[in-house]
Amino acid sequence: MGDMDPHIFAVAEEAYKQMARNHKNQSIIVSGESGAGKTVSARYAMRYFAVVSKSGSKTRVEDKVLASNPITEAIGNAKTTRNDNSSRFGKYTEISFDRKYRIIGANMRTYLLEKSRVVFQAENERNYHIFYQICSCADSPAFKNLRLRNADKFNYTCMGGDINIEGVNDKKDLEETRQTFSLLGLKEDFQSDVFKILAAILHLGNVEIKNLDLYIFQLSDPHLAVFCELLGVSAEGLVRWLCHRRIVLVAETVVKPVPKDRAINARDALAKHIYAHLFDCIINRINTALQVPGKQHAFIGVLDIYGFETFDINSFEQFCINYANEKLQQQFNLHVFKLEQEEYMKEDIPWTLIDFYDNQPVIDLIEAKMGILDLLDEECLFPQGTDQSWLQKLYNYLQASPMFEKPRLSNGAFVIQHFADKVEYQCRGFLEKNRDALYEELVDMMRSSKVIKSLPVYLLYQNAAISKSVKVKPARPSVKPANKHLRTSVGDKFRSSLSLLMETLNATTPHYVRCIKPNDEKLPFEYDSRRVVQQLRACGVLETIRISAQSYPSRWTYVEFYSRYSILMSHVEADLNDKKQTCKNVLQRLIHDSNQYKFGRTKIFFRAGQVAYLEKLRLDRLRGACVTIQKHARGWSQRRKYLALRKAAIILQQYVRGKRTIRKTVTAATLKQGWAALVIQRHWRGYLLRQVYQVVRLATITIQAFTRGWIARKRYKKMIKEHKALVIQKYARAWLARRRFQTMRRLVLNVQLSYRVQQLRKKIDEQVTVLRDKFYYETQVEGLKLKMDHLENENSKLQNLFQEKSNVNENICQEVSRLSSENLVCHCTFYSIRRGSCATCKQKNRVHKSYLNFFITFIVSQTARQKPASTIPKDYLGMLEYKREDEPRLIENIILDLKLKGVAVNMIPTLPAYILFMCIRHADYLNDDAKLKSLMNAIIGGVKKSHQKDLEFLSFWLSNTHQLLNCLKQYSGEEEFLKQSTPRQKKNCLQNFDLSEHRQILSDLAIQIYHRFISVMHKTLTPTIVPGMLEHESLQGISSMKPTGFRKRSNSFYEESETYTISSILQHLTVFHSTMSHHGLDQGLIKQVIKQLFYLVAAITLNNIMLRKDMCSCRKGMQIRCNISYLEEWLKEKELQSSNAMDTLEPLAQAAWLLQVNKSTDEDAKEIIEKCCELSPVQIVKILNSYTPIDDFEKRVTSSFVRKVQSLLQDHEGSAQLMLDADYRFQVTFPFCTSTQALELLQVPNSLHLDFLNRI
């Protein structure tokens, strides 16, 4: 690297090699004035690392690292008088490498952003590039909502005058910035929020300042409205706290207006803080995007930091920049001196302490206790502190320091003697910039902004969010603030971050890049030596040269010295094998003063000027050797030319002499003979060649003829074969078409025949139903006739009784008439003998009265005794009275010995349930607990004993048990069961006992009866399912097409049994349904029973399909679907569609569809996966593997198609069982239905032999 011109790639390569070789972290420190090329040099260094250490991963971290540069330049660079793209902040980029030294991530730290540039730019300068970029795209649809205009319309972007930079396209730069945002993974929402905040800052700068009463800012200002709209804050609150300040006193809080200049300062401070926090947010998001999972093995840091600056007016920013350069120069001096010392110790060279400039006093002046920064922070704590009072403190405390001076002609400045030059700083603005304060009320306003809240840097607005940088011990202990809640000043933050940077640099191996600016006019090929020397002095290069010149600045290894200066050695010295001793001998011969050089272990050290003397000697020796070489080369060249000319002359002489000799010896006759011989030779050779050509041509034509004939015959034979094949194909296709047509016609005829048969069956079933109804009505008529005969007998008895009563009444009437006549006689006698004795009259009167009363009493008693009770209407309570000893007779007659064919049972199927409940009501009415429990236990025991395997008996008692359970619920008195009851039914509720436990027992008993009922139907229906659904051919013509390779099963269970069809299944289902309907079973229970039976049909049928290959064909699928349609028609006919019974047939229907569908392409496989959702993956694969074509029109399922379906079924969850459980039972529920039967109107028929029951 030392033999070549300085190049940034050489420095980057050296850093990368040392990191890989020494396993130590490296740093590249790039410094220089503004415009010297620091940013470009740092960019090229990172580009070198990205190229030589590609990660090889899909994340392309190195591209993201390079992509961060356009963003940071857009938000942190601006045009100045010295540079069109000046970095207005310091940046330290830490590039992380893994163990293979490939980039795995990066991290960026920034220092001292120039916030004042947001609100003020000097003449011929610009604000940050990003503002001009968004203004250039103001007409773009994406920026319409920002209400931007040209950059010369905003105060914050037109202060410097010219808003354009020659050769720079701001619109194109914004597109690049947005592309890098997207490359780093920053989404459109984040970019939109960033542009909103930038536009809001521009609008805030255009808010007009007017002295109108107490409010300086107008609420009607359009720019103020746009600012509040973009950030989502209140305009009234913003205007209030820009124009007022809150002062918190001990006892009260005072809000006072502020003057115009302070309002302007508050507006500008708000703009600066918003931009600074936005800058930190973007840097934070970039660091997040550059962080890639992985452990860091080593890193290389690239520091792009401002160089030493001195202007006509130097302020707080130049003070911090020069303070940073003082620290970096100290680190550079210590590094150079340390390298020199290590080099001398390594080579065993005697050395003495080298005197070099130490800038520690200047650093102490700035950062030590009671130093410039310490006094500045102390003055910032005072509310009334000013720049002038702080400057006076500097004069008082630091006047004795030799590095601090007071200007002679100014009372508002101070001078510091830096390592590069004296710099005069103007104290105006130091306190304000160090405080960097913003009113707490404005901070609260920004907290309420939705746009700022969406940024992660929102936490920076918290008061407690004080900088948490690493604590670094300064040169002298600083004074700790008394209040821990005080804000950290800008100077303190910068000092802490600078100390952390110095710790990082000291822990790495530094490499220095000093960028020198050739001129200040930005002109190419112009070199200003005075400015270059000034920059070399400012960056410490001259001081480094001076330190190196005091010792041995030049050094060569023995091998390098021997190789370069071997030309100065004599032959005797060069012949020595010991090169080290040869070098010593040569130096002692050439340089007589031994103090001008020293011999080390591996190197030779020279004083200043000695290498130049050796180079002069070497140059002289080379010049002499060159002259000698040139002399010999020119002589050799001349001799070569002379020999060439001499050789050419000799050849010419030989040719001329030969010609002369030929002319003398050769005659004309000799020449003619020679010419004739040549002509003869020519013709003979031509003849021979023609003969050979003719033979070859004839042979070639013969071969071609035979070859073409063979090819023609071969082509002819091929055409004959193709023609024959076409004829065979034509006849074969015609035969296949005719066979396919005949097959399809046969299938269509079979379908038509099946449909017609189905219609005929429906008509037959309707006629059977009519006949059954007619039989049912005849049975009812017979029962009514019996009942009428019974009623006629009762009526005759009542008429006889009435006749007897009529005779009694006639006797009574006769007796009354007789007594009346006697009474009249008595009255006559009484009047006739009135004049007789009174005693006799009174006695007769008493006798008459006593006789009259006796007859009246006798008549009434006789009438009451002989008149029947039925003639007096009664109000029955719907209860049946029985004696305790009659309870076994009740259970035996109503449960055990009950005949289901009786008239009473046919009239009201659930009559036993009502009779039993009326007996339960009477026991509850009597409040007889023992009688009630005995009756309930007897009922439950009787129903259990009556369990039989007879279908009708189970159906009858399932209906009565359900009805008894409903009665117990309906008359329990619970609100949920009384909603549809009549007022009389509500009045008849149970009063004394809670029968919920008996209801539970009765419900369990009903479940047992239900399962026994289902089992009986299963046993009856099972033998008909396989023959009816699979084996019987309801579509005629399919039975003749059996799959080849299968023989009839001789051991089939159904071989010798009765032949069953789908009609057999439907007949069984019809019998089951009519039995349940005849016995009054609830419609909800009937639907559950039918659903269970349909599941049995589907399970048994599907299981047989899985086990029998002869059932896996397209025609069998058609048969199954036809049978399923029969079952569906039966459900519609019985109005049972709502029972969800067809859902249980869905797996069977899908299996039938799978047998019929095409099974060859990927689309077929996807359709199978979508349609066969009720079949498990195991069942689908089993059906595909078992599929067997019946004829040539069907194709077998290929193994590749089966594997394709299996791959698609991997993500589908399903049962791993192949067979369905035919014994599975759905959960049964007993629905509650309110009974409309009035218990008080029920009569107990005599046919039940329950004459011991009395209606109450």
Task: Give a quick summary of the entry.
This is Myosin VC. Belongs to the TRAFAC class myosin-kinesin ATPase superfamily. Myosin family. The chain has 1256 residues and is an alpha+beta fold.
Describe this structure in words.
There is one protein chain. With 1256 residues, the protein is an alpha+beta fold. Among the domains are: 8-307 and 489-515, Kinesin; 326-435, Up-down Bundle (Methane Monooxygenase Hydroxylase, Chain G, domain 1); 886-1034 and 1059-1082 and 1231-1255, no CATH class; 1086-1229, no CATH class. It is built from 40 helices and 17 strands. It has a five-stranded mixed beta sheet with strand order 5-4-8-1-12, with helices on both faces. It has a three-stranded antiparallel beta sheet with strand order 9-10-11. The chain is flat. The N and C termini lie far apart (126 Å).
Shape: flat
What is the CA-CA span between the terminal residues? 126 Å
Number of strands: 17
- What CATH calls the topology of the domain at 8-307 and 489-515 is Kinesin
- Spans with pLDDT under 50 lasting ≥5 residues? 457-486, 827-845, 847-873, 1037-1057
Q: How much strand?
A: 5-15%
Structural class: alpha+beta
Largest beta-sheet characterization: 5 strands, mixed
Radius of gyration: 61 Å
Mean pLDDT: 80
Q: How many DSSP helices?
A: 40
Tell me what the CATH architecture of the domain at 8-307 and 489-515 is.
3-Layer(aba) Sandwich
